[in-house]
């Protein structure tokens, strides 16, 4: 939700998301540009039963990028030399990608980087600095209710 909010703030092609508090309610209601996040995620999660899809999580990539890249290699049936794997780990690190104009989308016509850079922070759990305790409680309840019919573990952790 936090990433969507900042992306919508900086993307001139999208409607202004309003304040964080307004966006929080809009997001939970599923009234964002791409529709309900919950429906979107659950729809793709169900596809794993009929399509070969590899799911990776940002938290896992930050924790152990080499392990996650090996998962991709295995999924694709590839076996790369260790030095190539190390180059991939380096060049796909958040800090390197943030400095690379090929990955950190810089288009001042469509994006207002004064409001928010395309690649913002890359910090796992930084959403805790955006949510109030009441919003965290509300989101956790909403998430539990809307994701109850799925086995997906989204790595969400409360403020407590």
Automatic annotation (TrEMBL):
Keywords: Transferase. It comes from the Eukaryota. Gene3D superfamilies: P-loop containing nucleotide triphosphate hydrolases. Residues 1-150 form the Sulfotransferase domain. It is an enzyme of class 2 (transferase). Signal peptide: none annotated. Its EC number is 2.8.2.-. InterPro entries: P-loop_NTPase, Sulfotransferase_dom. Pfam families: Sulfotransfer_1. GO terms for molecular function: sulfotransferase activity. Belongs to the sulfotransferase 1 family. This is Sulfotransferase. It comes from Theropithecus gelada.
